[in-house]
Amino acid sequence: MAISVVMPALEMAQETGKLVSWKKRDGEQVKKGEMLLEVETDKAVVEIEASGDGVLAGVTAKEGDVVPVGQTIAWLLKPGEALPASGAQSQSGRKMDSAPAAAATAAAPAATESTSAAGARISPKARRLAREHGVDISTLRGSGPGGEILADDIMKAAAGPAKAGPYAVPASSPSNVASGDVVSGFSRTNTDAATVTSIGRIMAERTTQSWTTVPHFFVARDVDATALNATRERLIPVIEKSHGVKVTHTDLIVAAVARALRQHPRMNGSWANNTVALNADVNVALAMAVDNAVVTAVIRNTDRCPLGAIAKQRKELAERARAGKLQPADITGATFTISNLGMFSVDAFTAIIVPPQAGILAVGAITDRVVAVGGMIGVRPMMTLTLSSDHRLVDGARAAQFLNDVVLALLDPDKLA
User: Contact, 204 vs 336, CB < 8 A?
Assistant: First the structure.
């Protein structure tokens, strides 16, 4: 039986995916588990494996196409098997006739269940964005299948023509960024104007949504990192010998947070449908800076991982993130996130929560500070931790107790090993 290759849904509320590249050519034999295509999300470029054996045929999407989630973009055929009729009729990307558009609608009904005032289909997310940004959908021509109005169309209409403002980049301003470079989700064009990449645009949309809909509050603690430094130095040769990786401060912090999350299930929970869902697993994500964005890669079952295993996973995830080779499992299922900017000499900062998670921990640099030690003035290596929490899931007391347990673990880090 023919196996359909569809645009996968890798994230919550995802409507479309961008096809970056095919790993196999039309007519080439494919085995189950082989890398078949690359898809771009707001977090990373993700490699997708083949779900079965067969010959790749009926490819309907080319590199660079933005395709609705659930739409068939190719088939895997057994020897002598014919291409399904629907696969022979469709065209690539968004440029589809009404018959394939109807098939895509059947595959993902939730994304196309409403229509605009002008009669064109409009996804629920696009309709919500139109209300928020005051966009008249009757004036829009959708770029989706059959003229469907997508969230991209709303955001472009809301932005309107480029306008000069206090943060605009003048065409004549000097730049130390080469043409085509990408910085934090923005790229430089040949005209030296800053244009938003697709990852940067979606990142901006998601962080704006989190900041404006999630009731953030913050608690912070300064931590004496003397014991943390000593434990790391002692464990470096031990972990390097057993797991082939150098243990970092981040690894110890991840271990401390994971153990604390097990003791504080609401901080490990999620807000969904106006209820608190308690997650069975503790999966800690790490925010990682890559060339064109920030990605969050997940260390699974973190509370049950030995420190060496955490360090090894962290290194492997970082390498795949930098190479743009993260897998779907690498970026999904996180229950809590850590963002460490200490390596950038940042003393302290607050981070935006990644919904539906309950919180995110911002970690600053370890620096020598003058502090009170036993009633005397002393100098100690200090680090600031700032916890952002969703007030719908946890209150101030619960957040403070969780952060206190993290701090206590970092003050006695030998137990983390």
Answer: no
